[in-house]
Amino acid sequence: MSGGVIAIDGPSASGKSSTARAVAEALGFAHLDSGSLYRGVTLVGLRELARHGMRGDDPARDLPPETLRRAAEDRGLMLQPDGAGFAAYLEGEPVDDELRSPTVTSRVSAISAIPVVREWINSRLRAMVRAGQNVVVDGRDIGTVVFPDADLKIFLTASAEARAGRRISQRGHTIEAEDLDAEAAALAARDHADSTRAVAPLRPAEDAVHLDTTTMGFAEQVRFIVERAQPIFSRP
Ligand code: CDP
């Protein structure tokens, strides 16, 4: 029996992961962060290059897609149950902190444009839902490609400035004007790459509910989604 799916898509730093986790907790679902698998394959590629003395290079450019996919599989990249969600493991160790490093962040969009990588990740996400788990999944193509029949689809956005500010605060830093400009530029570059790639570009599903959180508090945006989900999942 397949589990229920709430798909939350949107651009970088729109708050998808933290919102998805809180919605999952409120509903007793599990949170699946698809971005952590894209970041995980990027880390696999960087480690593969380091093993071959090519530290810091670009795995999407320097490794064939099939080598990347096989290395992800052989080195045990996986999501393991952890509280209300799943944590990413690689070579038997939790790697969530390493997945947020600036090197991984700057390389991940090129990795996510590789069809073989996307197919491998999608098959893993679908297998978890086929196992009967109710999930909140966040990403870029969850409502359009991975789970087009999701029970509820949300497209989360916020202004570029609000997103850049949130990312800086997330790191525990105070928001200075020049940092805000630099962060907004980095997010814009990743959004452009993610929206213009040939496979599964970032775009809202036709039946997605749009939620602009620029001026919304966190609790309010979580409540907005939970209130839309409750009637869907309480039907007999
Ligand atoms: O948290 P943040 O918004 O920075 O990004 P993320 O959700 O961790 O995703 C990192 C990268 O993975 C994105 O910039 C996309 O290139 C890619 N991604 C994707 O292509 N498709 C998904 N379903 C999820 C992430």
The radius of gyration is 17 Å
- The largest sheet has its strands arranged as 2-6-1-7-8
Average pLDDT level: 93
Largest sheet: 5 strands, parallel
Our estimate of the beta-strand percent is 15-25%
Gist?
It contains 11 helices and 8 strands. By secondary structure, the chain is of the alpha/beta class. It has a 5-stranded parallel sheet. It has a 3-stranded antiparallel sheet with strand order 3-4-5, with helices on one face.
Topology:
Layout: E1 5-9, H1 16-27, E2 30-33, H2 34-51, H3 59-62, H4 65-74, E3 78-82, E4 85-90, E5 93-94, H5 96-99, H6 102-112, H7 115-130, E6 135-139, H8 142-146, E7 152-157, H9 160-170, H10 177-196, E8 209-212, H11 218-233
Parallel strand pairs: 1-6, 1-7, 2-6, 7-8
Antiparallel strand pairs: 3-4, 4-5
Helix pairs in contact: 1-11, 2-4, 2-6, 2-7, 4-7, 9-10
The structure holds cytidine-5'-diphosphate.
Residues 12-13, 17, 34-35, 38-39, 108-109, 112, 139-142, 190, 194 line the site of cytidine-5'-diphosphate.
Task: Describe what you observe in this structure.
It is a single chain. The protein has 236 residues and is an alpha/beta fold. It is built from 11 helices and 8 strands. The strands form 2 sheets. A 5-stranded parallel β-sheet has the order 2-6-1-7-8. Strands 3-4-5 form a 3-stranded antiparallel β-sheet, with helices on one face. The protein is globular. The relative contact order is 0.21. The model has no long low-confidence stretch (mean pLDDT 93). It binds cytidine-5'-diphosphate. The site of cytidine-5'-diphosphate has 16 residues, from helix 2, helix 6 and helix 10. Cytidine-5'-diphosphate binds next to helix 2, helix 6 and helix 10.
